[in-house]
């Protein structure tokens, strides 16, 4: 589903899960900062509505939308081949918390595998496929992990922690080519699809109790961290976990 045709000289940001929540806020912010966009996700209508919002806000930005399940190697390869233009910024944002956990070892294995596929494979497969196309010098790879990686949370926390280990190795590998690789670990950001089925008063109260600033974060605040790592001032920051969480861990990671 390509929604533009004209040539452009703006740099491009490829955003997985760019149709909602933190991904959409990042897309809107990066469009304002001068980027064209390629949004990926599984739901075509969500991507289409996001593209409309971006175009309304920043008519000069080109927006390409590609429907793909990024857990699937074949779909990643097909999606990557469809991406038009340069890849100056890759934001690995797609993910989520698979809470289901069945009985016994089978249930544990399914829980860990599902979280790993959704949070690790989505980032690793897309990055590997796009690696030859990431801008050199100056490319940026940013992966959204979570406070859960640092605080612990079952298969989800373990999968997000895997993102950190992978990110650090890639940062070292790509530094000589002047590509930066970082993670952003958000805390509680309830105005997202991530919390749609769990946004109860009890959950909100328990999460707020863990935040010294006593308020949740917003998708725009995480997008601000993305904009820093994607922008000119982020060029010497690599291999880092940027925590955006209202002081929930006070830098202890
Ligand atoms: N919200 C929070 O409090 C919080 C805190 C820490 C970390 N995070 C992380 O932030 C990231 C963004 O989540 P969000 O909070 O903005 O929630 P969200 O609104 O649910 O965004 C997740 C996005 O990822 C896409 N996605 C999920 N699985 C995918 C797949 N297999 N292939 C392609 N796209 C996929 C979803 O679109 P489709 O369903 O259409 O595919 C959706 O647009 C996630 O990695 C999440 O783990 C969130």
From TrEMBL:
Organism of this sequence: Leucobacter iarius
Domain Ketoreductase: 13-198
Pfam families: adh_short_C2 (PF13561)
Cross-referenced SUPFAM superfamilies: NAD(P)-binding Rossmann-fold domains (SSF51735)
UniProt xrefs under InterPro entries: KR_dom, NAD(P)-bd_dom_sf, Sc_DH/Rdtase_CS, SDR_fam
Ranges in a coiled coil: none
Domain of life: Bacteria
Name of protein: SDR family oxidoreductase
Keywords for this protein: Oxidoreductase
Annotated family: Belongs to the short-chain dehydrogenases/reductases (SDR) family.
């Amino acid at each position: 589903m390509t929604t533009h045709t004209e040539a452009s000289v703006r740099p491009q940001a490829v955003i997985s899960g760019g149709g909602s929540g933190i991904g959409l806020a990042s897309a809107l912010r990066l469009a304002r900062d001068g980027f064209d966009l390629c949004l990926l996700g599984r739901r075509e209508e969500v991507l289409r509505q996001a593209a409309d919002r971006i175009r309304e806000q920043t008519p000069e930005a080109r927006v390409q939308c590609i429907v793909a399940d990024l857990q699937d190697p074949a779909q990643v390869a097909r999606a990557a081949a469809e991406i038009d233009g340069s890849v100056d910024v890759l934001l690995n944002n797609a993910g989520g918390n698979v809470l289901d956990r069945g009985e016994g070892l089978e249930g544990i294995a399914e829980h860990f595998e599902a979280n790993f596929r959704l949070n690790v494979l989505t980032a690793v497969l897309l990055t590997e496929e796009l690696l030859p196309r990431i801008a050199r010098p100056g490319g940026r790879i940013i992966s959204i992990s979570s406070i859960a990686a640092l605080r612990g949370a079952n298969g989800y926390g373990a999968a997000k922690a895997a993102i950190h280990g992978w990110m650090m190795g890639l940062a070292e590998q790509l530094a000589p080519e002047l590509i930066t690789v970082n993670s952003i670990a958000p805390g509680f950001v309830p105005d997202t699809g991530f919390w749609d089925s769990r946004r109860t008063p009890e959950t909100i109260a328990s999460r707020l109790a863990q935040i010294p600033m006593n308020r949740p974060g917003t998708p725009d605040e995480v997008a601000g961290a993305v904009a820093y790592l994607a922008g000119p001032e982020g060029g010497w920051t690599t291999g880092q976990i940027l925590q955006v969480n209202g002081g929930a861990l006070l830098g202890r990671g």
